[in-house]
Amino acid sequence: MDLIQYQDFLIQTAKSLFEIDSPSGFTTKVSEYVYNTIKEMGYSVYCNNLGNVIVKVEGKDNSHPVALSSHIDTLGLMVRSITNDGQLMITPIGSPILPTLDGEYCNIYTRDGQIYTGTILSLSPAIHVFDDATTRPRDEKNMAVRIDEIVNTKEDVKALGIEAGDFVCYNPKTIFTESGFLKSRFIDDKGCAALLITILKIMEKQKLVPQNLTYFCFTTHEEIGYGGSTLPSDIEELLVVDMGCVGADLNCTEQQVSICAKDKVGPYDYEMTNNLIQLSKRHKINYAIDIYPSYSSDAAAMWRAGYNTRSALIGPGVHASHGMERTHIEGLINTMKLIVSYIGINE
C-alpha cells in the first residue's frame, strides 16, 4: 500500500491537532475536532462521558474485537496562585520538563471564557537585575507567568477574571522541516492521533475493511494516568500507539517505529509483541525493539481498571520527550505501515 500519497493529509491533520490547546482536563475542543473530522468521513463515532472519542469499524470478522489507542490530551500548567505584584504561580499538569518552559509564550484560559496571553519565566528573569538569573532553579516554586496586561497587583489580575485553577497552555511551536523532521511539543501523542485519523481516511477512500472489528480510540486523560480506563469493554487486544523514546541505552531512532517490549509497569503481551516484530520483518518496516523504564501508557490504566485485554505498544521514535520534541516523517510512516499491517488492510 502506498502511504506516501497521504503524507500531506497526515501533516495537515497533525498541524490542526497541535493548534488546539488541550492539556489533561481541558480537552473538549480537541475532542470536538477529532469527532467532527471523523464524522465527516462517514464513520460511526461517539464521545464517552470523559471525552474519549471512539470509532467503531466493522471488520471481516467481528468475533475478535481489537482496538487502537492514541491520546489527544497533552501536558500543561494551571494557575496555582497570584503574586502580590500580579504574576501567576503555576502547578504542572502531567510531567512537563519545567526548565524547558523558561521563556515560552502561553495562553491563559479563564473560567468565564476569556483568553489572555503571557510568558512563562523564571522569577529571576533578567541578568542585569538578578544575581541568580542563570543559577536559580527552574521549577514551580521559582517560575511564574508574566501576563500581557497592565497589572501591578493581585487585585489587578483578579479584575481580569483570572483565578487559581485557570489553565495555562504553552505554545507547541510546530514546524515541519524540509528535511522531513516534525518539531513540536506534544508529538506525544498528537502525532500518533494524526496517524490514526489518516488511516481512517485511507480506509474511507479505498473502501478497506479491517480483519477484525476495530475500535479507534482517542483518549483524553493519558498524561495523568487514566486515559485507557474507560475504553470499550469488549476489546480483546489493544495496540497502544504512543511515542517511542530516543536516547541513552535505547535502540530506536526518529526514522523508525519502536516496538516496546516493556515499560515501568511491566512487559507487554508476548504474542502480540512477537506478531508486531514478525509483521515488521515481513513487510520490511524499519523498526526497533526497546524497553522504557520511565514510561507508562493507556494499557496500564486499562489493566488497573480490571480489563481482560492483551496489549502491545508501538510508536515513532521521538527525541526529547516531554520537552521540545522531534520525530521524522519516516518514523511516522513506518508506524503507520505497522498499524495497517496489524489491522490487516495492507494487502
UniProtKB/TrEMBL annotation:
The keyword Hydrolase applies. The lineage of its organism: Bacteria, Bacillati, Bacillota, Clostridia, Peptostreptococcales. It comes from Intestinibacter bartlettii. InterPro entries: Peptidase_M42, Peptidase_M42_aminopept. Belongs to the peptidase M42 family. Keywords: Hydrolase, Metal-binding. Pfam families: Peptidase_M42 (PF05343). This is M42 family metallopeptidase. Coiled coil: none annotated. PANTHER family: AMINOPEPTIDASE, AMINOPEPTIDASE YHFE-RELATED.
